[in-house]
What we know:
277 residues, 6 helices
Amino acid sequence: MSVRRIALGLEYDGTPFEGWQTQPHGRTVQDALEAALQSFAGEPLATICAGRTDTGVHASAQVVHVDTTRERCATSWVRGVNRYLPAAVAVRWACTVAGDFHARYSARQRHYQYWIVNEPVRAPLLAGRAGWVFRPLDLAAMQLAAAQVVGTHDFTSFRSAQCQAASAVRTVTQCTVEPMGAALIRIRISANAFLHHMVRNLVGALVEVGVGRQAPAWMGAVLAARDRGRSAATFQAAGLYLTGVEYDAVHGLPPSCREPSGLLGLAAAAGHGTEAG
């Protein structure tokens, strides 16, 4: 039988999982997905994802590929696999792709969002869904700081000590900070690829500027220093979402960007427009 490559679009709540990548204890998104795939397809199927998310990090538009000999239609892959997945994970779409498609290496852009609740008292209903900063944040200062990381730079100051990437050079095409209602803030960061903890480290630095501990120009100085010790602490995982992965049109994938709908609903209830970016 011939081998077919299937691409899957996933959405998951990262709260109950210890990240994407498989672990011996089996409490990861990859472990849950591969168990469901085996139950559905009747054979072990190894998965490759576009971006390996950390413990507690969410995805509204993760992309995965698998190779299989099973002949199933796209709808069957969605409904069949979802039957065996826990409630915190769902396959949103599936399609057959060419053998040269690769969920990770074919990706041209990746999009992340970080959501912050900015009010004096923590919000229990958003626990695990958004970060929390109780001090007032100066959005204008954060926006000035964010603009300094757009472009092609060495992001050594914003990578973790465990990062295994051969190069710290990345191209950031978007870094914006915007209010989403009275107490919600959305940070959007897009790049060709990301380093380990890069988004959370950038958010941590933006918060340092926002609370007034650093001036906006400090962001550029930290970037230029290429020294992780000069930057802020890694920010909490709770508010981070992988919201999109872009590929060349030749691969024929469905639109790969999806907003975190629950948080957008809260922003809309607070009277803020929620146009997707």
